[in-house]
Amino acid sequence: MIETVNLTKKYGSFTALDSLNLKIEKGTVYGFVGHNGAGKSTTFSILATLLAPTSGTAFVNGYDVTKEPKKVRNHIGYMPDFFGVYDQFKTVEYLHFYGASYGIPKNERDLLIPQLLELVNLSHKEEEYVDVLSRGMKQRLCLARSLIHDPEVLILDEPASGLDPRARIEMREILKELKKMGKTLIISSHILPELAEMCDEIGVITNGKLVASGSVGTIQKQLQANKVIHVRLSSNLEEAISFLEDEPKVSAITRHDKNENTIIFSYTGTDEEQGQLLKKAILKDIQIVSFNEEETDLEDVFLEITKGVDFS
Amino acid sequence: MKSLLINPVLNKEIKLRFRSFKGFLGVFFYLFALGLIAIGFIIVNTVYTTASVFSPDQSRIMFIVLSFVQLALILFMTPGLTSGVVSGERERQTLNILLTTPQSSTSIILSKLFSSISYLLLMMISSLPLYSIVFLFGGVHPNLLLSTFLLYLVVMITIGSLGVLFSTLIRKTIIASITTYGVALFLTAGTGFLTIIIGEMFFYQNSATTVPYFTAMVNPFIILISSFEPYMVEEIQRRSGIGIPIVTSFYITYLLITILSLWISIKKLRPKMTANKGRA
C-alpha cells in the first residue's frame, strides 16, 4: 500500500532523509515517530507528491510518486501539519470546493458532505464560516476534506498538534473510526502514548534514518530486556529485599519514594523466569500484595531508541 | 477546454473575490476616481470658461484623458490583483492542500488569472456609463472605444500573466508584487522614456534606427496615443525600416509574453517529481 525504497532527500549538504525503507500494508495504522526535524514531514511531503526526492522513490497503492504523481493524488488524503483554510467559505462550501476539485458531481457531494460532517462531529457547523471555527474544528474539517474522495491511504502529519486534551480525544476517536473503515493510515504525532493505542505498527525516525520499525508490542519487548518491577508488600520489607538481593537477575533494588511498602527493582529474566521468581517469593512466605511490571509506553520507547542521538 | 475554464478553482476565486467587502470597495474607488476626473473635466471646461459649452472637441479630449487614466488604473491594479494569487495561497498555507488535488496546474493557473481579469473586466464595464457622457457630446467614433477596450484587455491579460508568473516563482507576495510593478513600470515609463530619448537623439540627426521601434512596441501608452494621434508611431516605424506596424508588433509581443509567462507558471507550480539523482 505504501512503500519507500531508499528514499533520500538532500538540501545542499543537509540530508533530511537518508535511504528510508518503509513498507506499510493495506489497512495498517502506522505511527511515524520522531523529533522535530527528523524527516517525518519530508517523507509525508514526498508521499503527497509535493516534494521530489533526491534519490530513491516511493509507491502508494503501487503507483510511483515520481512517475505517476497524478494517480497517486487520487489515492491519498493528505493533512499537513500546518495548514490554512479559506476563511470566507462556509464549512459546507469548503467541502464542496474540494469535492468538486476531485471531480465529484454535485448531487453526490450533496449526499456525501453531511456524512463526512457527521463523522467529524461538525454537522452543527455546516453553515458557519470557516474563520469562526476553533482550531480543533478546523483540524477535523481538514480531516473531512482529506476524506472527500474516499482515499484508501491517509497521510496525517501531526493531526493532533495544538489541540486541547478534549479535542485530541475527539480526533483520536475519529482516527479509530477510520481504522475500522479499513483505511491505511500513516500518522505522525508528538502525542506518542496516543499513537501506541491506535497504531498497528510504528516507525521511529531520527536524523532522516529509520532506527526502529515494527509492531508496538515488538518494539516495546525489545526494550523490555530491562524490566522494572513494582512489588507491594504487607510486611517484612527487609526480608523481601534480602531475598531479591540473592537473585542473580535482579538489580537496582530501591524503596518507593511515596509508598513505603513498595519495592522497585530491575529484572532481566524472561517472562517464565519472572513467574518462577514470584512463585519462589510466595513460597518463602513473603507477604506480596501486588507484583507488577512497569508499563512501557511509546514515549519510553522513543526516548530509549533515540538515546544518545544528536538532534542538533 | 471547458474543464479548464469552468472549474472549482475559478468558481472559488470568483466567489471569494466578489463576496469580500474589499471587492466592492475596489469597484467603488475605481469608479469614484474615474468619475471625479470626468466630472472635474466637464466642470473645468464649462464653469470656468466664458463659453460654458462642452463641445465635441472637448468631448474627444475628455475621452483621451479618461482612456489614459483608465489605462494607468489598470496598470496600477493588475499587479496588485495577480501577484498574490499563488504566493498568497502559499503564505496562507492553503497551496499544499490544493496541489494534492488532481486539478491540473494549467487549470489552477488559468483560473487564477481569469478570476483576477474578470474582476478588472467588471471594473472596466462598470466604467462604460462614464464613457456614455463622451458619446452624448460626440467627437469620438465607437470603434475607437472598442480598440481602446481591446488594448485594456490585452494589457490586463499580459500584466496579469506576469503577476501570476512572479507569484508562482517568488515565495513572498510582497516581493512578487514589487517585481510585477517594476516590470509594469519598465514597460510603461521605462520604455516611454527610452523611446523619447533615443528617438530624439536619432531623429535630430535625421538618421534611421530600430531601437525606438522596439521600445515603443511594448509600451501600451504609446499604442494608446497612436489610436488618437498616429503620426508619432508612424514616424518611428518609418525611420526603423521595419514593415510591420508597431500596433501589430505590440499585440504579437504581448501575446508571446502572456504565453511564456503562463507556460513557466504552469511548469513551476508543482515540483518536478522525478528524483534528480540515481534511482534505487
UniProtKB/TrEMBL annotation, chain A:
<dbReference type="GO" id="GO:0016887">
    <property type="term" value="F:ATP hydrolysis activity"/>
</dbReference>
<dbReference type="InterPro" id="IPR027417">
    <property type="entry name" value="P-loop_NTPase"/>
</dbReference>
<dbReference type="InterPro" id="IPR025302">
    <property type="entry name" value="DrrA1/2-like_C"/>
</dbReference>
<dbReference type="InterPro" id="IPR003439">
    <property type="entry name" value="ABC_transporter-like_ATP-bd"/>
</dbReference>
<keyword id="KW-0547">Nucleotide-binding</keyword>
<protein>
    <submittedName>
        <fullName>ABC transporter</fullName>
    </submittedName>
</protein>
<dbReference type="Pfam" id="PF00005">
    <property type="entry name" value="ABC_tran"/>
</dbReference>
<dbReference type="GO" id="GO:0005524">
    <property type="term" value="F:ATP binding"/>
</dbReference>
<keyword id="KW-0067">ATP-binding</keyword>
<keyword id="KW-0813">Transport</keyword>
<dbReference type="InterPro" id="IPR003593">
    <property type="entry name" value="AAA+_ATPase"/>
</dbReference>
<dbReference type="Pfam" id="PF13732">
    <property type="entry name" value="DrrA1-3_C"/>
</dbReference>
<comment type="similarity">
    <text>Belongs to the ABC transporter superfamily.</text>
</comment>
<feature type="domain" description="ABC transporter">
    <location>
        <begin position="2"/>
        <end position="232"/>
    </location>
</feature>
From TrEMBL, chain B:
<feature type="transmembrane region" description="Helical">
    <location>
        <begin position="149"/>
        <end position="170"/>
    </location>
</feature>
<keyword id="KW-0812">Transmembrane</keyword>
<feature type="transmembrane region" description="Helical">
    <location>
        <begin position="240"/>
        <end position="264"/>
    </location>
</feature>
<dbReference type="GO" id="GO:0005886">
    <property type="term" value="C:plasma membrane"/>
</dbReference>
<keyword id="KW-1133">Transmembrane helix</keyword>
<keyword id="KW-0472">Membrane</keyword>
<feature type="transmembrane region" description="Helical">
    <location>
        <begin position="117"/>
        <end position="137"/>
    </location>
</feature>
<feature type="transmembrane region" description="Helical">
    <location>
        <begin position="21"/>
        <end position="48"/>
    </location>
</feature>
<feature type="transmembrane region" description="Helical">
    <location>
        <begin position="60"/>
        <end position="82"/>
    </location>
</feature>
<protein>
    <submittedName>
        <fullName>ABC transporter permease</fullName>
    </submittedName>
</protein>
<dbReference type="GO" id="GO:0140359">
    <property type="term" value="F:ABC-type transporter activity"/>
</dbReference>
<feature type="transmembrane region" description="Helical">
    <location>
        <begin position="182"/>
        <end position="204"/>
    </location>
</feature>
